[in-house]
Design a protein that fits this description.
Elements (H helix, E strand, L loop, with lengths): L4 E8 L3 E8 L5 E7 L2 E6 L8 E4 L5 E9 L2 E8 L5 E6 L4 E8 L1 H7 L3 E6 L16 H18 L3 E4 L9 H10 L4 E8 L9 E5 L4 H14 L5 E6 L11 H4 L2 E8 L3 H6 L3 H24 L1
Parallel strand pairs: 10-11, 10-12, 12-15, 13-14
Antiparallel strand pairs: 1-2, 2-9, 3-4, 4-7, 5-6, 6-7, 8-9, 13-15
Helix pairs in contact: 2-7, 4-7
The chain binds zinc ion.
Length: 296
C-alpha cells in the first residue's frame, strides 16, 4: 500500500491549537520558521489526501495550506500571534504527528477583562424580523450567550446586560458597564434593509477607542464566517445624558453581526454552528483589540 499523509486537521481547545497529521507510518518532519507568524512543515511522505486549504481562524491559527512538491507534503501554517509549539507522536492506527501551538497569548490578552455584552432589544421589543420570522432579539441573545461562554474560557469576566427576554432602556444597559467599570461595551444587533439582496455586517462606535474595536471585530467576521464588511461608522448621537468619566475611556460599539432581512443570512442564523462562528469571530476581534491597544 502506498504510504503517505491521509488526513490533516486542526482541533482547538483554550490551551492549544493542535495540528494533526495522520498517516499509516509517521513521516520524518521538519518545522521551519519562515517568519515569526509563519511556519512551513516539510514531511518526507507524499499526500494520499487531496491538497487542502483549511480556514481555521480560531484566534491563533489563521490558515493551514496542505500541498505537495516532488512527492513530499508541505503544510504552511499562518498564525495570528507568535507562539511556542510542541511536537508529539502518537503511535496508533493511524499514526499521528501532532503540533500543539500554545494559545496562552489569548489568555494573557483576555484574562480578568470585564466585557459587557448587550443583546439588543428583548421582551416586547422584538427588534427586526426576517422573512422566515426569525426575531432579532432571539438571535442576538444566542450569539451573546456563545460570546460570553467563549470569552470566559480565556479568563475574561464577560457580563450580559440581560440574561432573559426582557426589555431594557439604553441607560440601564450602559449602566451595567459603568458600574463594573468595564473595559468595553458591545451591543449586538442584526442589520436590516428593505432590499433583500443587501447582506453583511455593520458597526457603529462612539468616539475614541471604539473605532479600533469596531473595525477589528468586522475584520474577523469577514475572515470567518465570511460576512461582508459594510463598514464602521461613528454614531451621531452621544450619551450626553449619562454623566460618567468612565464613559469617555470605555469603547462603546454596536455590531450588527449580519443582515436578518437577507434570506441567506437569515437562514444561516438558524444554525447554532453559525452563531458560534459569529461569537468566535467577535471574540477574536476583541483579543485583537487588546493586542493592538498594547502597541498604541
Ligand atoms: Zn437592533
Amino acid at each position: 500500500m502506498k504510504q503517505g499523509i491521509t488526513n490533516v486537521y486542526i482541533a482547538t481547545t483554550p490551551r492549544y491549537s493542535a495540528l494533526t497529521i495522520e498517516s499509516l507510518k509517521t513521516p520524518n518532519c521538519s518545522i521551519n520558521k519562515i517568519h515569526e507568524k509563519n511556519y512551513e512543515i516539510s514531511l518526507d511522505s507524499p499526500l494520499i489526501m487531496a491538497p487542502d486549504a483549511i480556514n481555521v481562524f480560531d484566534g491563533l491559527v489563521n490558515t493551514a495550506v496542505v500541498t505537495e512538491k516532488n512527492e513530499k507534503a508541505i503544510i504552511k501554517v499562518s498564525l495570528e500571534y507568535p507562539c511556542a509549539y510542541q511536537l508529539k507522536v502518537e503511535r496508533n492506527l493511524p499514526e499521528r504527528l501532532i503540533i500543539f501551538f500554545d494559545r496562552s497569548v489569548l489568555t494573557i490578552l483576555l484574562k480578568d477583562k470585564v466585557i459587557v455584552i448587550d443583546p439588543g432589544h428583548g421582551g416586547k421589543d422584538f427588534g427586526r424580523r426576517g422573512h422566515i420570522n426569525l426575531l432579532e432579539k432571539n438571535v442576538v441573545m444566542d450569539v451573546a450567550n456563545y460570546l460570553k461562554e467563549e470569552l470566559n474560557l480565556y479568563g475574561a469576566r464577560a457580563v450580559m446586560t440581560r440574561e432573559r427576554d426582557i426589555c431594557l432602556n439604553t441607560k440601564d444597559r450602559i449602566n451595567t458597564a459603568l458600574l463594573l467599570e468595564a473595559e468595553m461595551y458591545i451591543s449586538l444587533h442584526t442589520n436590516w434593509d428593505r432590499n433583500k439582496k443587501i447582506h453583511g455586517a455593520k458597526g457603529t462606535y462612539y468616539e475614541g477607542q471604539g473605532k479600533i474595536l469596531c473595525e477589528s471585530i468586522l475584520r474577523e467576521l469577514e475572515k470567518k464566517p465570511g460576512i461582508k464588511n459594510l463598514g464602521a461608522n461613528q454614531a451621531e448621537k452621544v450619551f450626553e445624558k449619562i454623566q460618567s468619566r468612565h464613559i469617555s475611556k470605555m469603547p462603546i460599539v454596536t455590531i450588527e453581526v449580519c443582515t436578518i432581512s437577507n434570506p441567506v443570512e437569515e437562514g444561516w442564523l438558524r444554525s447554532p454552528v453559525f452563531k458560534k462562528r459569529l461569537a468566535n469571530a467577535i471574540k477574536n476581534g476583541i483579543s485583537n483589540y487588546f493586542f493592538l491597544k498594547k502597541r498604541y
